[in-house]
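Changelog-linked ticket: zinc ion example.
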Amino acid sequence: MSALYRRVRPLTFAEVVGQEHVKEPLTRAIREGRLAQAYLFSGPRGVGKTTTARLLAMGVGCQGEERPCGACAHCQAVQKGAHPDVVEIDAASNNSVEDVRELRERILLAPLVAPKKVFILDEAHMLSKSAFNALLKTLEEPPPHVLFVFATTEPERMPPTILSRTQHYRFRRLTEEEIAAKLTRILEDLGRRAEREALLLVARLADGAMRDAESLLDRLLLLEDPLTRAKVEEALGLPPKEALFSLAQALGEGRMKEALEEARRLYGQGFAPRSLVGGLMEALREALYAAYGLPGRSLSLPPEALLAALTRLDEALERLARRSDLLALEAALLAAFAPTPKAPAEPAQAPPPEPPLPEFDPLAPPPRRAGVRARPNRSPVGKKPWLPASAPFWRPFGPPCGPSCGRPGPRWWGPPSTSASPKARPSTTSGRWSKRRPFCPWPKPTSGWRRSISFWKKKPLSR
Ligand SMILES: [Zn+2]
């Protein structure tokens, strides 16, 4: 037995759920015989792109009254995938230039039975660039007996040269009500019963994709009648909604003991922290809807708190992907409902406005910075500002300034040494010879200075 979504695939445009903006122009084009040469159907997965492409192929050669009728031999053959003039190509696996060349050769052949040959290229964005280029000329001027239908989930990846040669229809996501209505019809045909809330839950889990909803329903058909929300939650491994709402209520009201016990109980029942947090977010979202007047179950929490908790839980989901245990779950729950710090009531004082810039005058002298006095860079050589008037005599230079300088020290004064030996030269740091200037006034030593230093070192200071 084939999958449910294949058994309930629509046979007429009327059976396609939603997508009125696509169905109406296509129906009229088939009726009036004004079909384009190439169509592009884009949209998320499972919303009816391939189905509509097949319906278009059925409508091309249908002998029924309302085309496509879904009952005539042509329609049946297309539906079974056995029609010689309808070619479905999976572009994801046939995406090379050779495949497109082979396709071009097939295009030249006239149709066998139907008035047109229909080529349906699924996942068309997967064609390689060279394959697209090989297809360009064919698309621009195809033989009159050919109809192309491209189906893709990513129209952005199609080259603009292809887009401009096709009629582009965007398929939208289906609403939960639309999906639930189709599921109800399927269940009626099967003679099964289900709660509306259970079907709405399935529709929400499908996220706008009919095929996903039908696949989920296929699993749920193994359960006993009637299908209830609790049974669906249990079968799909979802945490029960009642427990999630009571958990959210306890967290929001600050009853942390009860909330943590409830979280621990759910964790113990085998629910993954990620699915618990995801279910809690669904409950909060429903409460937020109710707070804004949309249908949904309300919680006695202000919308701001709900929104803040939703945001924090969304951040926690990423962390739970890395670490998924009870501790991480509790941390996520406690952080989500922690009280938000109060914002300061008074807005901070605005900084004082900056003084306006003075007008620029190119002829004015440059401004002088405060505390800095312009001074000519004069060398102290030749000046004797430190020489006291009572100095008995002075020498042009004294002993070395120190180990770090190596240059002769400042001019200094004092009685001549009585020693004739250079070793007996008086110390520069003690006694009466230690009257060193606090700074070295000499310019940078040159080789000449160095020579004089060595010369001076070998001679006694006296004389
Ligand atoms: Zn037909």
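Closing comment: Example verified and attached. The longest helix spans residues 303-322. The beta strands are 38-42, 86-90, 117-122, 146-152, 167-170.
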